[in-house]
Amino acid sequence: MPIIQEPTTKAYLKLLRERLSDARLSHTVFTAEYLSSFAPDLGLNHGDAVVAALFHDFYRDCAPEAMLQDARQLRIPMSDCQLEEPLLLHGPLAAEWCRRELEISEAVYEAIYWHTTGRPGLGLLGQALYVADFAEPSRRFPEAEQARQLLRRENFRTALLFTTEIRHAVNQQKKVTDPNTEAFLLWLKTGGAA
Ligand SMILES: [Fe+2]
Ligand SMILES: [Fe+2]
């Protein structure tokens, strides 16, 4: 179902346009349209899927110092990784902002909060956003196309496992590696998730 069919989408897009760069807005809309195309098949609420995708990167264009400052102000607990790499806070900050400013469900809050790293026990909406963020159709790298194919030809679980394996491998190359992604992968491999 197109995202514009949700009654709040128009107003949300206005907010996003004021806040995000053109490239980020484009990625956001692609993520939302893509997630909304498969969320109902997973039994997810369409409105929840749209709002989670639209706001997942709401803080992504903020400067690192501003992220740290806002996280302190909002009393978001920060890990050593997040203190070293404030970009890792953009999910938690967006989730907190949405909780305060919009009427969101716990599932939406969790999905936005953990969309960068995943975590063991992550709910289905969070899992679906994790895949959609990685594989939305404007992502041109070959692994994104592979994930889209797995979702089309195999099933969601296969696409999720593939996405997590790739994202974990990419994280390993980074200066700061958040341990939640490895724990998420282990959880999936040992039978966690839908
Ligand atoms: Fe993000
Ligand atoms: Fe994103």
Q: Helix share of residues? A: 55-70%
The CATH architecture classification is Orthogonal Bundle
Beta-strand content bin: under 5%
N-to-C span: 22 Å
CATH topology-level name: Hypothetical protein af1432
Number of domains: 1
Rg on CA atoms, Å? 16 Å
Please write the string of helix (H) and strand (E) elements.
HHHHHHHHHHH
Major beta-sheet overview: none
CATH superfamily: Hypothetical protein af1432
Overall pLDDT, averaged? 96
In DSSP terms (H or I, runs of 4 or more residues), the helix count works out at: 11
**CATH level 1 class label:** Mainly Alpha
Name the bound molecules: fe (ii) ion
Structural class by sheet pairing and helices: mainly alpha
Overall geometry comes to: globular
Extract low-pLDDT stretches: none
